[in-house]
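INTERNAL AUDIT FORM
Audit reference: QA-55
Scope: verify that the stored structure record matches its stored sequence.
Auditor: D.O.
Record contents follow.
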Amino acid sequence: MDYAINEMEQEVLNATREFAQKKLKPLRAEMDAKEQFSKEMLEEYRKSGLMGLWLPEAYGGLGGGITCLAMAFEELSRVCAGLALTPGTTALGAIPMFLAATKEQRERWCPDLASGKKLWAFALTEPEAGSDATALKTTAIKDGDFYVVNGTKHFISTGKEADFYTVAVNTNPSRGARGISLLVIEKGTPGFSFGKKEEKMGIRTNPTYELIFENVRVPKENLLGSEGRGLLYLQETLDYSRPGVAAQAVGIAQGALDETIPYLRTRKQFGQPIITFQALGHKVAELAAKTEAGRALVYSLTHRMDEEFLPAVKNALENGTTVHDELRKLKGGRWTKYSAEAKLFCSNVAMEVADECVTLCGGVAYMRDFPLEKYMRDAKITQIYEGTVHIQKNEIITALIKEYAAKGDEE
C-alpha cells in the first residue's frame, strides 16, 4: 500500500531502501559483533543527504518533515536498527532544539546538522529520573552570562560520538518540574566528560554512554526557549519523535519477516516446504497483517502531523519566530495520545514478530550467523526507550479520561 505517499516521500523511500541494502547490510553483522560505532557508515550518511531529510531547504535539508524521517527510519531499521540510529538519535537530539530555537540559534546549528557534519544527542535520563522526567537532579545555575551545570546523565544514545547534546537541566530546583529547562552543550566544554559505556543486548552499533557534568559553564545563548519551559519542550519533542520509534519497530518487524519467509519457503521437512504447513503459514499471515497495521498507523499519523508541522516551519522561517510558537498558532492540542498509541502498538508488534520468527525458523534462527536473533535483540529496545510501554499506556488512558470527562461536561 502507498498510504498517499507523495513524490518526495517515494523518492526518499526508494533511496533509503537502496542505501540500506548497499551500505548497511554488508556491515551490520560485523559492527554488531564488535559493538562499535561505524565511522565508515557516518561518512556514507553524510554523502547520502539522509541526515537532513526533515529539515528545511533553507538550512541544507530536504524539507521532508516527520513522514520522510519516519520512512527513512523504517527502511534503515528493516536492515539494521543499530546502524539506523546514526540519523535517528541525531534527529531526536535536534528536534527540541529545532522546536524551541530562535532564528539565530537555528542559523548557528541547523546547517551542520542537515549536512551531518555535526551529530546531536538527547540527554534526559538520569540514574533516578527515567520514566519520571520531573525527578531529574542535573542543575544549571545562572552565573552572569553562563549557566553552571552539574549532574549525571546515563543511557545516552550516540554517547561520545555526538558533537552537541540537548540536555534537560533544572535551572530552579525549588520549582520542581517548573524549573526544568533545556540547554545545548557542546562536546569538549571544560568539565564535560564521559563515564561508563554500556554493554547492551541490542542496537549494539550505537554507543550508549554516561555523561558527567562538573561545573560546566554553558553560555546563556545556549538556552532553548525560556527558563522553566523545558518540560513543555520535552513533551512536545516526544510527541514528534515517538512515531519515529514506531516506524523503527515496523522496520524491525518487516526485516524479520524478510528473513523468515524465504527460509520457510526453501526449508523442507516431511518432503515439503515448511511454509506450506497450515499452522506455520497462518502464523506468518498474522504477523504480516499486524506489521502492515502498524505501518498504516504510523503514516496516517505522520501525514496528519506534517499538515501542521511543515506550515509551522515555513512560517517560523518567514517570521523569524520559533517553530514551537507557530505550531501553537496552528493547533490547539497535542499529539500525545496518538504518538503513544503508535509506539505502543508497533513496539509490541516488533517484539512479537521477531520472537515468533525465531520460533518459526527453529534452531538456525538462534545462531549468530543467521540474522534473526539480532532482530529479536534489537526489537526489545523499542518497548523501552522514549517511554516504556507502561508509560505509553499511561499517556493514552490519561488522554481518554480527559476526552470522556469533556464529553460528560458537554452532555
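Auditor finding: record pair retrieved intact. Strands lie at 120-123, 139-143, 146-157, 164-170, 180-186, 192-197, 208-219, 223-224, 268-269, 272-273.
Action required: none
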